[in-house]
């Protein structure tokens, strides 16, 4: 039987590279934890093994406590990768540098909700994503929404034990800015810049 979450480590917290917005209009900044943490540096703090285990149980998964020491670092690395992809999108929006760069306002995971692009990819024969996140960033006072579809990646035959993920990170098309960014990225593919 799984150990009660209280027996899992609670003090091994990792500070992320992701700056946290201090936006006053954020009611629930983190769907993963009822008690979100911020480091003194102002960056997000990843959940402990106990917090991650409890979050998986709340989502009706059947987590194995002994897996938490492996799963939590993978979770953190995948989120760092998602943030680096968002920074890549944001690097083409010059204003963000003027106020210290983009900051994460909130995020929410919902693996049961498919994006229109994920539905299209499934119709084309691809595997569905195993998770979806919606992240809101603060770009100098302007909130920009991003969606992230998480896919299992292709395994490296030289290292079959290594996990592999593919992240499809993009601005949502729920605002003029999101549409402009997506169109700009589409056309930049034809003209050689990214």
Automatic annotation (TrEMBL):
<keyword id="KW-0999">Mitochondrion inner membrane</keyword>
<feature type="region of interest" description="Disordered">
    <location>
        <begin position="1"/>
        <end position="44"/>
    </location>
</feature>
<dbReference type="GO" id="GO:0004408">
    <property type="term" value="F:holocytochrome-c synthase activity"/>
</dbReference>
<keyword id="KW-0479">Metal-binding</keyword>
<keyword id="KW-0408">Iron</keyword>
<comment type="similarity">
    <text>Belongs to the cytochrome c-type heme lyase family.</text>
</comment>
<dbReference type="GO" id="GO:0046872">
    <property type="term" value="F:metal ion binding"/>
</dbReference>
<keyword id="KW-0349">Heme</keyword>
<keyword id="KW-0472">Membrane</keyword>
<dbReference type="Pfam" id="PF01265">
    <property type="entry name" value="Cyto_heme_lyase"/>
</dbReference>
<keyword id="KW-0496">Mitochondrion</keyword>
<dbReference type="InterPro" id="IPR000511">
    <property type="entry name" value="Holocyt_c/c1_synthase"/>
</dbReference>
<keyword id="KW-0456">Lyase</keyword>
<protein>
    <recommendedName>
        <fullName>Holocytochrome c-type synthase</fullName>
        <ecNumber>4.4.1.17</ecNumber>
    </recommendedName>
</protein>
<feature type="compositionally biased region" description="Low complexity">
    <location>
        <begin position="15"/>
        <end position="24"/>
    </location>
</feature>
<feature type="compositionally biased region" description="Polar residues">
    <location>
        <begin position="25"/>
        <end position="41"/>
    </location>
</feature>
<comment type="function">
    <text>Lyase that catalyzes the covalent linking of the heme group to the cytochrome C apoprotein to produce the mature functional cytochrome.</text>
</comment>
<dbReference type="GO" id="GO:0005743">
    <property type="term" value="C:mitochondrial inner membrane"/>
</dbReference>
